[in-house]
Amino acid sequence: MAYRTDTPHPAETNGERLSVLRRRKRWTQQRLAQESGYSLAAIRGFEQGRRSLDRGSVILTLCRALDCHPTEITGQPYAPADGDRAGQEAAAAVAAVRRALLRHGRPTRPSDAEAAAVDLPHLQRRVAEANSLRQSAALARSASVLPQLLRDVQVACDVLADDGRRTAYGLLTSVYECAMQYLYKLGRVSDATLATERVLWSAERTEDPLRIIAARWYEAGEFLGIGEHDDAADIIDSALTALGRPGSPQELSLAGSFHLKAALNEARGGGREAERHLQHAQRLAETLGEDRNDYELQFGPTNVAIWSVSLPVEMGRGREAVRTAEHVTASLPADFSPERRSHHWIDVGRGHWYNGQRDEALTAFLTAERIAPQQTRMHAGVRETVRTMMRTQRRGRLLELGVRVGAL
C-alpha cells in the first residue's frame, strides 16, 4: 500500500507534523501505535488535533518510535506573530548571537582601543544586567545586549592573565548561559545546544569546582531534552557525587537544583523516582531557608514549590497539579523572577487543561502572558494547547490569545 508524504498545506499543529513524520516512514497509524505503545485511538486523536500533543514525555516517546528530533513534532523555531514587535526584535538578533558563539575559541584580535577598554568591574555590571534580563524573560532586550557583550567578554578572556582571566571566564560562562536561555526560549534548539557546549568549555577554565558542576546542570538538560534519560541521569548522579554531603549554601543550592533536574528526568522518562527527588530537594530547600541564585541557578523554597506543580503537569496529572497550585500560587512572592512566575502560570494552565477546565486554563495562560509576554507566546506547550482549545471555540479572549501566539 502506498502512502502519500506530501500534504495539501504546511503542517501547522503537532498532530499534523506527527502525521507527516509517520507517513514518511510509510507507517500506518496502527504501526505507530504498536511502536510507541500508545493506543490507536490516541494516535488518531493526536493527528486529528482532538488530543493535545504538548507533554514532553509523550513527544519524546513518539520521537523515539519515529527516530526524529522533538522539534520535528513541535515545529520550533516559531516565527513571531504579526504585530509582535518585541518578538520580532528578539528573533532578529539570533544571527548576531550565533556569530558570536561561532567565534568562540578563535583569536579575538582586539584593536588597541578594545584591549585598553577592558574593565572587569564594568563587565561584571553588564553581565549582571544581562542576567537580570534573562530572569525577566525580556527576550528583545536580551537580544539588544548579548552580541556586543559576548564580544567584549571574549576580548577580556584574551587580554587578561591569571586571576583576571579566570574571572573573565566566569563572566563568559554566565553570558553563554544567557545566550543559551535566550535561544532556547525562541525555539532555536540547535543554537542553544551550541551555547551549552560553550558554557561547559568556559566553566572548565574558571578552575572553580562549583562553577564546573553547575555547568553540568545544563548539560544534563541537553540529554533530557532529546530523551536520552540514562545519559542525563549519569550526569546528574556524577554531579551529586562530586558535591558529596553539601554543607555551604552554594553546595546546598546546587545539590537541590540537581535533584529537581533528576525529578524532571524521571517524570519525562517514565521512572518512578520523581517524587523522591522532589522530596530531597524540598528538604535541602528547608535547610537552606532562603531563595538563592548561585551560579544563576535559582533554588530555594519558592522554586521547589513551583516545581511541585511542574512535575505532575509533566506526568499529565492535571488534578494533582491544580490542587498543588492552589497552595503554591497563594504564597508566590510578587517580586520573584518573572521567568519563573510566568512558567508557573503556564504549568497551571496546562494542569487546568488536563483537568478539563478550559476557562481556568485560558485565564492562567493570560496571566503568564502578562508577566512574560514573549516567553509565553513562544512556549511550545502554550501554542499547542491553545490550538487544541480553538478547535471548539474561536472567539473572545481565546481567539485573541491564539492570534498572539500564532495558533491560527
Low-confidence segments, given as residue ranges, are 1-10
The H-and-E topology, N to C, reads as HHHHHHHHHHHHHHHHHHHHHHH
Mean pLDDT: 92
General shape: globular
Task: Count the E strands.
Answer: 0
How many H/I helices? 23
| SS class | mainly alpha
Separation of termini? 34 Å
Portion of residues in beta strands equals: under 5%
Whole-number tally of structural domains? 4
Helix content bin: over 70%
**C-alpha Rg, in Å?**
22 Å
Largest sheet: none
Plain-language structure description:
The chain is an all-alpha fold. It has four domains: 14-74, Orthogonal Bundle (434 Repressor (Amino-terminal Domain)), CATH 1.10.260.40; 83-206, no CATH class; 208-299, no CATH class; 325-408, Serine Threonine Protein Phosphatase 5, Tetratricopeptide repeat (Alpha Horseshoe). Helices cover 72% and strands 0% of the residues. It is built from 23 helices and no strands. The chain has helices spanning 14-24, 29-36, 40-48, 56-66, 71-74, 85-92, 94-102, 112-116, 120-135, 139-159, 162-185, 189-204, 209-225, 229-243, 249-269, 274-288, 301-314, 318-331, 338-354, 358-371, 373-377, 380-389, 396-405. Helix 13 runs antiparallel to helix 14 (229-243), helix 17 (301-314) packs parallel to helix 19 and helix 18 (318-331) runs antiparallel to helix 19 (338-354). The longest helix is centred in the middle third of the chain and has 24 residues, at 162-185. The protein is globular and about 65 Å long. The protein starts with 13 loop residues before the first helix and ends with a helix. Residues 1-10 have low confidence and may be disordered.
